[in-house]
């Protein structure tokens, strides 16, 4: 496990999970520790990011039977990592993770942290993919600027409500089969051609309407982003829809101060939304 | 596995190891049964698989150990489970083992008293390990198991007998989970994690009693138990045909492979067996209706084939379907409620799948009353209502219903969005954000009305000339966005001419809603003709069930 310790006086390390979709080079330069989530294909446990190529995974997903499932890393895996980090002279760990409403990862981290007392702050980001990633990055930036742990925690608390993930799925099928979203389970899509929109905000996945065709859907996604208002950070998400993602990056780049990152989304989330989805992470500017 | 239990007790580390291994074997055997229960949104994958992987890690930890001390073996089991814990149920299971092991700390052997204490400790640790404990889950089953063990201890100190005695109580606890967790009740299942825990206990008991742990899973049911009467509302999109094939296998069936193959062919798979004859049931799309038969011929001699068009069944069941069987979205108080008027059961189903709060039956010839529309929304637990009339003749009744609500002192904001056709109503419905701001949502839905072109094919009820189009009574006519544009001899002719007139080649998607009076094969022929004429457009056929209009077309 690679990673560097942040340079604040308290010697704080930031840990997140692989669903954060932080690009490898940023993980290294920020010194963030990543715990891989687990993907189960044909009964085999694979580490998200390490054992599976995303491109290949999404290519195979439509014909993969039984459908792959996902799992949280064990509390033991967290315990080991935490112990390893403390052994390097770190005094505190800030462990920020995918929404506890979507995954057991937070619970596993929370359990593991119990054996280390108050030295570990486990935080539920209410988000995933770069919605989580941006929060972890902000935490490192804030620590480097000399903020204390409690200041960073407070900062994350106020940031959480400004982070939104919006996505257009190519089909409702994967979300429905995953069984995690009650309304998706209930709404047996009657239309064959339907592109559902979803929003993730503070741990809640909401239905945001549908489009019948992809082109109309992409136009609508853009409008939904524009309606959000002033933006601090953007990232374009996709599950093997590379061309659409680049086009969309061009379409929205003027909305944010920096060029939006593009991420081919973690397989652990992709298994639940299916291939060919297009989405965006928005961190709203503070009012 | 050979029987390793010595009838004498207390239990030592080696016997405990075998018990845990038996639990894993039996859980593995029943893994798919547990997975099948995993239908509600508890995070992280299939419960059966997760619990097996967790137990597997626990067993691996002690597989090669000759340790006699039960405290040490239990700790190793708990450590393995913790390291291998997968999913919420796996994590809770690992916590049960952790408490169990702690309670046996420093003990060489386990008597009944120690077993009962270990169950209690496991329960306590598991409850503490969960951020927000939920009743009706594996936690509840663990709690009931511990309580049953305490009762059993009053009768015997034999740990094996205690395990046997608490098995029925544990089963009863699993069966009660739907009463505690409404989501289970809605889905008609028991809790998967609780069931997994039951199999763990049952595996130990079967081992004690010398029963097999490798009985194949009951994926083949007795023929009499197969439930083939169709619940129409569960038809999956596109899976229009039900195919039932009776066959005599050439060789013993490789069930996992058979199931895997069938899953690639269709849905709603069931397999039954009686007197060596197997019956396979499957739902498939129309164009693949012969695939299951061909496939079955590759594994056995086919003795009987039955095939039914499920859409045709809906047609016969239509009247009740609209009123009784429509599965509406679960509606949360405070959300925007959309009320639609739908002219046919199929169209009602499509609207329902998009999240409407209520459907009022009605259309071209049967306009619903103000009262009917009012009744549909007046008691809904929200103050935000949008009505989609989907017909120009119903807009007024909808407005009247809104007025009536006002007079009755019903404090709701009711907006009539003047959709004049079904495709317009559907286009608007796609934009619904249930939690959104009412004014913004209405504006967005309003703008969507122009996203779609509507075509309607019907028969002229009298001879007339309108807008320069002369029609004879009985002729097929086509309307574009409600305006008469052409007449033709057949439905197909009218449809193709209309598509040409409204530049279908410039569109992406053509959706056909077939009416109550046109047969499935007729629609298939027309759809094929459209696909041939517009090879780069997607063509989708939906059963609409509307009267008088053989086809309604939506172009997007």
Structural commentary:
The complex is a heterodimer of chains A (287) and B (556). By secondary structure, chain A is an alpha/beta fold. Chain A has two domains: 12-37 and 72-160, Rossmann fold; 163-284, Hypothetical Protein Tm841, Chain: A,domain 3 (2-Layer Sandwich), CATH 3.30.1180. Chain A has helices spanning 24-30, 54-60, 75-86, 105-113, 129-144, 149-160, 173-178, 182-186, 214-228, 242-252, 267-273, and strands at 12-17, 33-35, 38-41, 44-47, 69-71, 92-97, 120-124, 163-168, 195-201, 204-211, 231-238, 261-264, 278-284. In chain A, helix 5 (129-144) runs antiparallel to helix 6. Chain A is globular. With 556 residues, chain B is α/β, with parallel strands linked by helices. Chain B has four domains: 13-208, Alpha Horseshoe (Serine Threonine Protein Phosphatase 5, Tetratricopeptide repeat), CATH 1.25.40; 221-310, 2-Layer Sandwich (Alpha-Beta Plaits); 318-451, Dihydroxyacetone kinase, domain 1 (Rossmann fold), CATH 3.40.50; 453-555, Hypothetical Protein Tm841, Chain: A,domain 3. Chain B has 21 helices and 17 strands. Chain B has helices at residues 13-29, 31-36, 47-62, 70-84, 87-103, 112-129, 138-153, 159-180, 182-187, 192-208, 255-265, 291-299, 310-316, 318-325, 345-353, 370-378, 395-407, 422-429, 438-448, 491-501, 520-533, and strands at residues 221-222, 241-249, 267-274, 277-284, 300-309, 337-342, 358-361, 384-388, 413-416, 453-459, 464-466, 469-471, 476-480, 483-488, 509-514, 538-543, 551-555. In chain B, the strands form four sheets. Chain B has a six-stranded mixed sheet. Chain B has a five-stranded mixed sheet with strand order 1-3-4-2-5. In chain B, helix 16 crosses helix 17 (395-407). The relative contact order of chain B is 0.06. Classes of the chains: A alpha/beta (287), B alpha/beta (556). At the A-B interface, strand 5, helix 3, helix 4, helix 8 and strand 10 of A face helix 3, helix 4, helix 5, helix 11 and helix 15 of B.
